[in-house]
Design brief:
Radius of gyration: 62 Å
Distance between the termini: 166 Å
Oligomer: single chain
Shape: elongated
Structural class: alpha+beta
Strand content: 25-35%
Largest sheet: 4 strands, antiparallel
Number of helices: 2
């Protein structure tokens, strides 16, 4: 008879001890609440063992206990100053600078001064005509090509008037050398022909002349070479 009652009372005793441990010895007490829920049965839960229950534990308000209120804690103000800006990812731009990624405004092109006139060049006043300069003729080196007769050749010369006054007339002189079969310069003959006038100021005219000497001066095996030219003009 005694053994039967012990078997009945033993589970009840464990249940009471477990409930007492949850409310009094299993961590911080909740004011006005008692733990409720299933307790691990059998050998998994013995008196005095600190084994967490497998099912969730609910806290129910006890009769006559004051109702609890939910407390909220104010968040502490964040740190201030440059260190806080660096931690939060914020960037500051010093005054007078352009933020990164912002296109700078276009700058006006620098002003360029007009070129200065060459030394010695007279500068005409606005609204006036520059003074006229006398005609001056410049000749290019002669270009020679063979002609049909050996005592003649075709000579091309360019005439440039570097002045502002036109050239109305003039003559060009050719210095023709008589060259022997062995390359010996036997004589120099000068001939003249008219200029391709008129030649306006600041223009160039090109003329081809047929320059000849006396046939007897150029025997068989010899030829002529016109090497220099000069001119006179009015």
């Amino acid at each position: 008879m005694l053994r039967r009652e012990r078997r009945v009372l033993t589970p009840l005793t464990l249940l009471v001890l477990a409930a007492a441990c949850l409310t009094g010895c299993g961590g911080p007490a909740r004011d006005g609440y008692a733990a409720a829920g299933a307790v691990a049965p059998g050998p998994e839960r013995r008196a005095g063992d600190n084994v967490a229950p497998r099912t969730p534990v609910e806290f129910q308000q006890l009769a006559g206990a004051p109702s609890s209120t939910t407390s909220t804690s104010a968040s502490a103000p964040g740190p201030q100053g440059p260190a806080a800006s660096a931690r939060s990812g914020a960037t500051t731009t010093p005054p007078g600078t352009t933020p990164p990624g912002t296109a700078e405004p276009p700058q006006p092109p620098p002003e360029t001064a007009p070129p200065a006139p060459a030394p010695g060049t007279p500068t005409p006043k606005p609204g006036t005509t520059p003074p006229a300069t006398p005609a001056k003729l410049t000749l290019s080196p002669p270009t020679r090509t063979p002609a049909a007769e050996r005592w003649c050749e075709n000579v091309t010369v360019g005439f440039t008037n570097t002045g502002t006054t036109p050239i109305r007339s003039g003559t060009v002189s050719f210095a023709t050398h008589i060259i022997g079969a062995l390359g010996i310069d036997w004589a120099t003959i000068t001939t003249t022909q008219p200029l391709p006038a008129p030649i306006p100021g600041g223009t160039t005219k090109t003329q081809t002349y047929t320059v000849c000497v006396e046939p007897w001066r150029v025997p068989l095996g010899m030829h002529t070479e016109t090497r220099t030219t000069t001119a006179t003009w009015t």
